[in-house]
Inverse folding.
């Protein structure tokens, strides 16, 4: 479908409206261009697709972009889950919003039968980096500014965005520039340091959970050869030249609290207000983000952080 008399920035919006069809949620402030392929390395093409949420009324100037990466233990989840409230909140605050899929490790059924050729690190960060490369090349056609990106992820997604922001080789390999990432919002990230989760001698996680991490980052035997556990740990790389972070973390998870605070210090940030501890479960941190009421302030503080680092042209409409 072509739009010969329509500007390049309006075409994706009109296309998204056509795809949504009659009876769609017209009250939403956004339209969506869905299932855009950004890479062809996955056997299942859906794993290498993304969605672009953009305002129905284009901004006068290119808007900063939030790139959202879902969680799910690196083996489950997808770009469509628990995303609407987040997209709505950021769209109303002057951002575009991109939700990303990536290749997933197989579901663990028998820890003793993990296939050597399975999807595992570094496949997932390579995919998210490829999505950022796509954003770099294409988001201007949707009215976005590729030089003002905010990465945001929950759980395993929080690990992935943290790794890409602190280990520039992933983004560079996808043809983008690390400086395009202006900030990172980490929602209860799991695995800022992979080693306590995977080392058989560590008591940070019970033994029956460790196969989930071996599935994504290698068994102890596999790690002997490739040192994946160290290479996959954002804390190994974090430093004052990296973009700023805002962390939301469960207040009853000592390991995640300690890792988030350590990372904030290595980034050269003050722990307060960079790390927000909240009395929510791991799941609630994800599901509550963007919803009202925001009694604990996680959405408000994350949004203020994103505005500060990416500087959208508008502060949003009423209710944003």
């Amino acid at each position: 479908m072509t739009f010969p008399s329509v500007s390049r920035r309006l075409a994706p919006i009109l296309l998204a409206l056509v795809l949504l069809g009659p009876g769609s949620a017209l009250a939403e402030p956004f339209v969506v261009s869905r299932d855009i392929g950004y890479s062809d390395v996955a056997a299942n093409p859906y794993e290498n697709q993304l969605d672009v949420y953009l305002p129905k009324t284009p901004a006068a100037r290119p808007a900063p972009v939030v790139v959202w990466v879902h969680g799910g233990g690196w083996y489950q989840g997808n770009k469509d889950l628990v995303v609407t409230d987040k997209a709505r909140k950021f769209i109303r605050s002057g951002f575009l919003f991109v939700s990303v899929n990536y290749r997933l490790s197989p579901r663990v059924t028998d820890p003793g039968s993990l296939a050597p050729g399975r999807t595992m690190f570094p496949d997932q960060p390579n995919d998210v980096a490829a999505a950022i490369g796509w954003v770099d090349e294409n988001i201007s056609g949707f009215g976005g500014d590729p030089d003002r990106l905010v990465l945001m992820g929950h759980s395993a997604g929080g690990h992935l965005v943290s790794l890409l922001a602190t280990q520039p080789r992933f983004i560079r390999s996808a043809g983008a520039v690390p400086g395009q990432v202006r900030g990172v919002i980490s929602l209860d990230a799991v695995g800022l340091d992979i080693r306590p989760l995977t080392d058989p001698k560590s008591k940070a996680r019970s033994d029956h959970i460790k196969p989930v991490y071996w599935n994504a980052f290698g068994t102890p035997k596999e790690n002997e050869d490739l040192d994946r556990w160290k290479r996959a740990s954002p804390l190994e790389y974090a430093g004052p030249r990296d973009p700023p972070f805002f962390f939301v973390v469960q207040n009853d998870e000592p390991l995640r609290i300690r890792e988030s605070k350590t990372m904030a210090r290595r980034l050269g940030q003050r722990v307060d207000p960079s790390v927000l501890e909240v009395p929510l479960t791991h799941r609630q941190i994800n599901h509550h983000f963007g919803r009202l009421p925001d009694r604990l302030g996680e959405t408000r503080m994350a949004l203020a952080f994103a505005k500060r680092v990416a500087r959208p042209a508008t502060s949003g409409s009423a209710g944003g």
The beta strands are 30-37, 49-55, 63-69, 96-100, 144-154, 181-187, 245-250, 275-278. Residues 188 and 249 are 4 Å apart (CA to CA). Residues 11-310 form a domain with the Rossmann fold fold (CATH 3.40.50.1820). DSSP finds 13 helices and eight strands in the chain.
